Amino acid sequence: MNVEGAGLAPAVAAILEAARDRPGGTERLAVEARSLSAAFDAAEAEGRVPLVAEVKPTSPTTVGRRDDDPVELARAMVAGGAAAISVLTEPDHFGGSPEALERVRSAVDVPVLRKDFLLREDHLDVVAADAVLLIARFVGDDLPALVEAAADRGLQPLVEVHDREELTTALEAGADLVGVNNRDLGRLEVDLGTFERVAPAASADVTLVAESGVTTAADVRRLRTAGADALLVGTAIMAGDDVERATRALVSA
């Protein structure tokens, strides 16, 4: 496995170290997934910004922790117009769990993305989801095999990139669903210009999801103008008391 750890923020390096030691599933999954692209198209048709709202109890870049029932949070996000839900399953640094994702997916009728640091094929088999995040920088040369392994299980791989070189790697690996992370994992700093620089290099048949840093309606409009087919938002929604209202404000931007 070629996992690049050099130049990472200490928090991210610690997350990766924990992920390497985390066990995978013991039985190969077979999933009948709800389509992310269809959910995005449906949101567009209804005049909503396609939004993946994230159930994220905490993170290395946030203060404090929310202990709300993840099912209640997810239902509020869907009521606010979210096209899909992302659920953190990383336990040590984000407060997530596979059990939370399982409960959320049973409670909502939109696609559910598993957000975690997945490094091996058996990591895909821990819990059934509709889509899984694969971070190009962290899986390195294993990316093509993991994209194929996810698809073979019925999972939709969302391949995360941060620059044009990683985008090329993702496309060569067969990704047609690409997330552009505006957060630099080396410094944990956010720059919305990252998406604006990377997006023009994507082919027209790729679905682009802008990740990280969206806090206002103006941010939504900026990234949509730059070519974002959808946006993934966690902190801006989870930070307030009214999750449904925060979601609605972004999908109607």
Secondary-structure blueprint of this entry?
Layout: H1 10-21, H2 36-45, E1 51-55, H3 70-79, E2 84-88, H4 91-94, H5 98-107, E3 112-115, E4 131-135, H6 136-139, H7 143-152, E5 156-161, H8 164-172, E6 177-181, E7 183-184, E8 189-190, H9 193-198, E9 207-211, H10 217-225, E10 230-233, H11 235-238, H12 243-251
Parallel strand pairs: 1-2, 1-10, 2-3, 3-4, 4-5, 5-6, 6-9, 9-10
Antiparallel strand pairs: 7-8
CA gyration radius, whole angstroms: 16 Å
Order of helices and strands: HHEHEHHEEHHEHEEEHEHEHH
Number of strands: 10
Biggest sheet layout: 8 strands, parallel, barrel
Task: Fill in the CATH topology.
Answer: TIM Barrel
Proportion of residues in extended strands:
15-25%
Low-pLDDT windows of residues: none
Total domain count? 1
Q: Helices and strands: which structural class?
A: alpha/beta
* CATH class category: Alpha Beta
Question: What is the overall pLDDT average?
Answer: 94
Strand order of the largest sheet: 1-2-3-4-5-6-9-10
Proportion of residues in helical segments: 25-40%
**Any idea what the CATH superfamily is called?**
Aldolase class I
Q: Count of helical segments? A: 12
Indicate the CATH architecture.
Answer: Alpha-Beta Barrel
Shape: globular
From the N-terminal CA to the C-terminal CA, the straight-line distance is 42 Å
